Amino acid sequence: MSIPKLKVGVIGLGRMGKRHAINLLHKVPRAELICACTPLEVDIAWANENLVPHGVQVVSTFEEMVEVPGLEAVIIASATPFHAAQTSICLERGIHVLCEKPICKTIEELERLVSQAQMCPKATLMVAFVRRFDANYQDARKRIEQDAIGRPLIIRSQGCEPLDMSPFYQQYLADSGGIFIDTIIHDIDLSLFFFGEDSIPKSVSAMGTSAHHQQLEAIGDADNAVGICEYWDDKIAFFYNSRTSAHGYDNATEIFGTAGKLSINLQPRINSVEICDKDGFVKTPVHPGWYDRYAEAFVTEATAWVDAVLDEAPMPHPLVSTLKSLGIAMALQESLRTGQKVFFDQSGVRVSESQSL
Fold first, then answer.
1. Which helix (H) or strand (E) holds 53?
2. Does any domain span residue 302?
3. Which of 32, 91, 269, 319 is an S-S bond match for 5, by CB 3.0 to 4.6 Å?
4. Residue 189: how many CB atoms within 10 A of its CB?
């Protein structure tokens, strides 16, 4: 007996969209990929080879995409500037949305989308934060719930990405919204995942430098940045991100508690293999990029989203945390730009007082 499947489309067939499409096609049991959208000829050629033979309809415009008969849900993996508008239109049409982050760059815009999703009885919205769906991070969360390290006090989380000086990446950085909004927001979200979704920020401060992408300084951004978020319940999160890693993708997290510590991937490595070479060095291969590190987590995330839609269950990533993460990321980006510490009241609302770092 065949199982009910959610009819899904993918908007955007760049690196992320291609992976979502292949996962939906082959690895998410309750999903049926029925269409995909891209305006780029090179991506259409890829789709003609990899998707069309499986019965997937490929269109070149978003407007055509939302008119595909039977479409029930979409994964939005288009360019960041299109995320908010495409999400809004899909929700209006009763189409469920899983949108890659950042869904937008302002709190006001996100609040409108959240309100729209809450007012729409036929469609749901989830923003993608893939690290939550990684087996290692999920295991760490369970151990915290089991009181393995007592009460969590301090989180240190970092993500280091390989240096990319290509013109495409330079433009990506210019459009990204900044290092905290674009990438450190994943670490911010993890702090809520481990400290608790109800955690309220008290203050944030940030600093950074531009080692290779010096053009970022003109817009108050950096290619290496550190941020600290103090929460009202006496917990602290420390974030570090580099866009200039020489050794590959390096993502590590430590959670210090009153009775122990949890560590995730402190030594970046693909597996447990070590290489002893003729020069007398012991080497461990690392992941070349973020997708390689989280390939299985993307499948888990898509599966959890599809299951929640079909079962009419709560989304596996709450929108309240998406709002909170963006608010913290924006405050950190402001602190980086201005050199000022940013404060929040006990309800999490920004307050006007600030001071120099």
1. none
2. no
3. 32
4. 25
